Amino acid sequence: MKIVPTVTLPYTRDRIAESFIVPLNGIERNIPHNLFLAVFPRIKRTKRTASVEASAAELEALSIIADLSDPLSSRITYELSERHGGNFVVTHMSSGQQLVCLPGAFRRIAGVSSRAVSGTATLSAAKLVEVGFIIEGGNNNDCNYQYVNYA
Q1: Integer Cα distance of 124 and 43 in angstroms
Q2: Is pTM beyond 0.90 here?
Q3: Where are the alpha helices (DSSP H) in 31-147?
């Protein structure tokens, strides 16, 4: 028998929104009811607040589901701005953070068309960090500054 290390994952059931609220990387995320139950079929469905033992694979699956099912946390707007030297001004909609990004780097990271000059996009947490946003609980930096190599 193989021993798998687990962590205790607290969760709260939101019956109105039909979702479960779980903390992932220090951020509370809403996971749709049916997807949470697909990952953790062994939970007691009658409890509103409880915890479950989760393996690394289950946490990874839950993180991917959270990124796909909670688009507002990863939604950005972008606009090519001549005022900013022909660079993109990118805004993270849920946190309000705004930054200026080189056009080639932004198009490569976000996967937008070379003809696009403005729009909205949904990026994963990893892509948001790569663009330069500081995601609470998601960055593994020891300092407040983030250096990105675009070469």
Answers
A1: 28
A2: no
A3: 33-39, 56-69, 103-110, 125-131
